[in-house]
Amino acid sequence: MTANHPSAWPAAAAWPPPPAWPVPPRRTTITGRVLALLLGALLLVPGLGIVGGGATALWAHYVDRSDGFVDSPQESFSSAGHALVSDRIDVSAVPGWLPVSGTLGTARIEVTGVGPADVFVGVAAAADARAYLDGVQRTVVDGLGFDAPATGGDQLPGGKPSGPPTEQDFWIASTSGQGTQEVTWDPADGDWMFVVMNADGSQSVEVEARIGAEVPALGGIGWAALVVGLLVTVAAVRLLVRGTRQPWNPSELYRQPRGDWSPRRSPTAPADSPFPSEPVVGARSGSAPDGRDGTAARRSSGD
Questions:
Q1: Which overall architecture, per CATH, does domain 69-213 show?
Q2: Maximum average pLDDT range among 51-55, 62-66, 148-152, 297-301
Q3: Per-domain residue ranges for the chain?
Q4: Closest Cα partner for 182 from 103, 41, 67, 58?
Q5: In percent, how much of the chain has pLDDT > 70?
Q6: pLDDT of 208 higher than 80
Q7: Cβ atoms within 10 Å, residue 44
């Protein structure tokens, strides 16, 4: 029996198993890729915006606090009239399922008079402040100074007030004096107004001011926005990757099996195998076990 005879091969159990065929990727049509690109682009911008907003809220909550308050930048305000007044502050604009005390906490306004006169700062119900300032020359500060500086359109004509602000009894919280004056106030449902005047009610009000609040819920809001923004951004990136993926070409993946699994002898034959584990010494393809050429062997047998 020759060494290359099929019966001399190792047992089937000694052959290495063929490699597993790779799982074909899911096919994506051109329409699906275009839709994935469009949806990914639409989600990416708001996702990044939400992440930025959440990061800003966390930075303000953990880093940018002054005595526990998140404050606006200090700005300069002036009026040729008798008062600086804020827009109507609608605390009821906070969603009903969010408690005002837990969302805003305590509010604070800090005012520093620039001129020689004592400065007055007060918080009042919007109806009471309007009644007191009705017909008084004043300047309205839009958005508490966040929107834009006061312009000529914010100047309301009128005369002088009926009396100094320090003599009025409708203020929820107020203070007056030289230098920096601070008023803290616990917001409640309703409409409110901030009023800044000279303590004697005179004309030409010029101050530097900033407003802030504790906003105890700012950390939770920041973390929630950050998580939602990251989820939206990751989903957008996955859609963009899916949309830019090249179409599936099965000929590239299935041209030939991967790995070397051609038949070969096992280095150690099974115990019950009648064949040696190593090739016969001196044996070669087309030769007999005794080393003679196969043709010579056939001649001998024919003789």
A1: Sandwich (2.60)
A2: 51-55
A3: 30-61+221-244, 69-213
A4: 67
A5: 63
A6: yes
A7: 17
